[in-house]
Amino acid sequence: MNDSYLNFVNSPFGARLARSLGLPKPEVLRRYRADRPEFDGLIAIGAGREPHLLDALANLVASVGMTSVAHESAGLWVPLANRHGLMTGRFEAAESGSHGRLTALLFDASGIEDSSQLEPLHGFFHDTLRSLGKCGRIVVLGRPPEACATPRQWTAQRALEGLTRSLGKEARRGITANLVYVEQGAENGIEATLRFFLSPRSAYVSGQVVRIGVRAGADALPAFDWNQPLAGRRAVVTGAARGIGASIASVLAAEGAHVIGIDIPSAREALDSTMRQLNGTALAFDIAAPEAPAQIAAALDEQGVDIVVHNAGITKDKTIAKMTDAAWQSVIDINLSAQERIDDALLAAGILRDGGRIIGVSSISGIAGNLGQTNYAASKAGVIGRVQSMAPHLRARGITINAVAPGFIETQMTAKIPLTIREAGRRMNSMSQGGQPVDVAQTIAWLAHPGSAGVSGQIVRVCGQSLIGA
Amino acid sequence: MNDSYLNFVNSPFGARLARSLGLPKPEVLRRYRADRPEFDGLIAIGAGREPHLLDALANLVASVGMTSVAHESAGLWVPLANRHGLMTGRFEAAESGSHGRLTALLFDASGIEDSSQLEPLHGFFHDTLRSLGKCGRIVVLGRPPEACATPRQWTAQRALEGLTRSLGKEARRGITANLVYVEQGAENGIEATLRFFLSPRSAYVSGQVVRIGVRAGADALPAFDWNQPLAGRRAVVTGAARGIGASIASVLAAEGAHVIGIDIPSAREALDSTMRQLNGTALAFDIAAPEAPAQIAAALDEQGVDIVVHNAGITKDKTIAKMTDAAWQSVIDINLSAQERIDDALLAAGILRDGGRIIGVSSISGIAGNLGQTNYAASKAGVIGRVQSMAPHLRARGITINAVAPGFIETQMTAKIPLTIREAGRRMNSMSQGGQPVDVAQTIAWLAHPGSAGVSGQIVRVCGQSLIGA
Questions:
Q1: Which of B347, B125, B51, B84 is nearest to A152 (CA)?
Q2: To 10 degrees, what angle do helices A374-394 and B119-128 make?
Q3: Is B347 helix (H, G, I), strand (E, B) or coil?
Q4: For residue A274, what are the CA distances in angstroms to A124, A143, A246, A271, A277?
Q5: Of A88, A197, A278, B185, which sits with the fewest C-beta atoms within 10 Å of its C-beta?
Q6: Is the pLDDT of residue A305 over 60?
Q7: Backbone φ and ψ of B420, nearest 5°
Q8: B157 touches chain A (CB under 8 A)
Q9: What is the interface pTM, i.e. ipTM, of the complex?
Q10: Coil, strand or helix: which one is B319?
Q11: Whether A161 contacts chain B with CB within 8 A
């Protein structure tokens, strides 16, 4: 579970040795800590023609208490920021050599309607990227291509993906780059998502494309406290005894949720111990058993549940010619079919409350396929289908369904992978290192957030922008 | 343009040396040759519950003249094949150790409605994969998830992607694995696509997912000859003087098309020479010039055009901090905006005839982003947006629009890449080698085929299932 190379090259001696040998030096990623400010430093604002999101961005900047500077492409920002009572300045291109002055770059591309209008994106990132400090944040905002009025606009908005993913690959230094498409009318629903992508919580999430849609109904979001957004919510987490599941339980509890952790009876001791630390509830049974959906429903019945995280999963790797029927079936059943049965039971009985959250765990293998994982990849591709197919059905009840797709995450499981394959998996991403279980957990906490009501039907990779994909 | 390692390890001495040193030995891919049979050998048929496509498959098998064997999962095949007058046998699992007996594996998963019904896929590939010969073909057939009636069915159909991509990664030996989703009602439109995926023409296309939809109108396909499917059609190819463009022109001409090749004036000599060999027409001008759309329209006006291939493209690589405004603008303009202007002119004037084909060239960089290619990746992601946005608009006129996305293709351009990066690009795919320009050209010829009328709005990678993706 330890990336000793990362630690070594960031020690005084190791850093010197790595420099003299020309070895890569992955950044120690800045992660969220309750005892450190989550947002600080200078954010540079850029914009294309007729930006639609600057008002929402001014609210965000005020809310997180950052200081902004306007790039010349965003001439409208200064008077707008002044109206919002924000301290703001102008970005001076002359200082662009000064590394580290900025902590975030935010570009509003929502008004771009034609490929011939993409130039301000070049101007902004050309001028500012070198001034972005270690573990800085890049967020490009656009309109969902498929909702654009004209093919020209769709095309230009779709082009943002190639730009943003390239920025992620060239920025290095622990910097993330993500693209957020905001549907027309969803402007007031972007804060939770932008907070996540600007925060150290998204340390290992890069090269991703997320859509924020208009929530069903025009209701205001339920009230919540940004410091305890899940207060009063109940969250089920499967596979919660150890590893990523325990980390998910821990982060959700830290955000205020009461966690009901489920794991198999043989993991009862670890589960009890994990749940005791979080003041949670432990339920030991096999989610794949035929009676499991009824058991969960019965255990939750009185108070219901707000958040369901389907984290439990297994691997039984073999090439298909050597894979037994039992290995195929058990992986499909535990990783996919059991989740379908449980969700359907909780939904049919109304135990998952309106405004709830379902969060699955897919995988890079489910996206790209993998040698020796026909069963696992099929199950994890199925999780993607589950998310995409259920999202429209759940919309009217205000329930969202999404999945994370982890890449190489440092766990006891990955620690058993042979050294050279492990090192390749660790390094083949824009962070040149594996992620931590908490990176998956924080991404799930964002999807579980009451402010993420407009985010549904999506697959978000937690992979440091892994090279591997489809 | 030469993969000398591939040649070396497939020489008698090199093969021995590679074996003794444990080096990888990429397969010499079998490619289409007019003087060799395109289809031969035994095809094994498998099926899940209630398969909907076996009738269409029986027509296909009869049409290409292959011999089939039915796996036990496809019990319905034998009587059906007999009704179609086909020679057929039963696949004997006992012989499954005998390498190379089969040339293709075809599984009809169209009737699978729940993740609990996926097991026959395991049974079929478990039994047959070892009997599939070098450069064999795997095709899985399903229903488009997004058109499924229930979330359970959508989920199960979506799971096929993870399975198929994993099969591609584990099969090796030059074997390709692809997934074809057939919309309900499109059963009679699958032959051109299945021929392509079963043929040596698709040597470097693997891990892809293609959808065949119902064509607009209920008209029968226009009559064509499988040996000269483009006879009587006129095809514009931009950037046709050399490299991939010349290969595209050559394949389209071999299929019977009259090719109008366009390239910049400085390439006039090469263009004239290429077009002379193909009895084509050479047009030398700059597609990015403001007058180009009118020039092309004027040149084509009398007879119109059936196929437009936007192959012309440039790279001007630099990290964004060092990229000039001119480098950004020229790449966006030539690779993307010029295509939009030309298409719009040809469509507005009705010069692109009903039933026509527009084919763009995207790139793995446009899908995944790439270091130093913010401009190129944005332009190539824009090509994807162009395809997706225009497809529904063009449907009523029977015009399809698609794009290929090449991975590492051996050209004069890639020959200039430094050795270690070139070797990584060449080997990081399921074929362990780069592709040839003809692999891109053959994929375009399939999309241009009159039988591909149900294929539109799609991006098909020609990348040997490159590891790189998003």
A1: B347
A2: 150
A3: helix
A4: 47, 42, 7, 5, 5
A5: B185
A6: yes
A7: -65, -40
A8: yes
A9: 0.96
A10: coil
A11: yes
Taking the mean position of all CA atoms in its chain, how far away is CA A135? Answer: 16
Strand ordering across the sheet containing B132-142: B88-90, B67-70, B42-47, B102-108, B132-142, B176-182, B209-212
Nearest CA in chain B to A155: B385
pLDDT digits 0-9 by tens, A238-278? 999 999 999 999 999 999 999 999 999 999 999 999 999 99
Q: How far apart are CA A257 and CA B64, in angstroms?
A: 61
Closest by Cα among B273, B229, B284 to B253: B229
Neighbours of B78 (CB within 10 A): 17
pLDDT at B134 over 80: yes
Query: Could you count the other beta carbons within 10 Å of the beta carbon of residue A119?
Result: 16
Q: Is B65 exposed, middle or buried (0-12, 13-18, 19+ CB in 10 A)?
A: exposed
Q: Which of B385, B431, B160, B293 is nearest to A163 (CA)?
A: B385
Burial class (CB in 10 A: 0-12, 13-18, 19+), A220: exposed
**Amino acid (1-letter code) at residue B154:** W
- The arithmetic mean of pLDDT across residues B54-66, rounded, is 96
Nearest residue in chain A measured CA to CA from B459: A470
Q: Which residues of B are catalytic?
A: 376
The phi-psi region of residue A200 (left if phi > 0; otherwise alpha if psi is between -120 and 50; otherwise beta) is alpha
Q: Within the 95-114 window of chain A, which residues sit less than 8 Å (CB to CB) from chain B?
A: 114
Average pLDDT score over residue span B249-271? 98
Among the partner-chain residues B365, B376, B468, the one whose CB lies closest to the CB of A469 is B468
- Note the pLDDT tens digit of each residue in A416-457: 888 888 888 888 999 999 999 999 999 999 999 999 999 999
- The answer to whether the beta carbons of residues B381 and A158 sit under 8 Å apart is yes
Six-digit token string for B108: 């009809």
Q: Where are the alpha helices (DSSP H) in A362-431?
A: 364-368, 374-394, 412-415, 419-427
pLDDT at B216: 77
Q: Which residues of B30-55 are buried (b: 16+ CB within 10 A; e: fewer)?
A: bbbeeeeebbeebbbbbbbeebbbbe
DSSP symbol at B219: P
Among the partner-chain residues B121, B154, B169, the one whose CB lies closest to the CB of A369 is B169
Count the residues in chain B: 470
Could you tell me the pTM of the whole model?
0.96
Report the candidate in B313, B327, B317 with the shortest Cα–Cα distance to residue A122: B327
List the one residue out of A56, A27, A45, A423 whose CA is nearest residue A200.
A27
Average pLDDT over every residue of B177-197: 97
Measured between CB atoms, does B189 come within 8 Å of chain A?
no
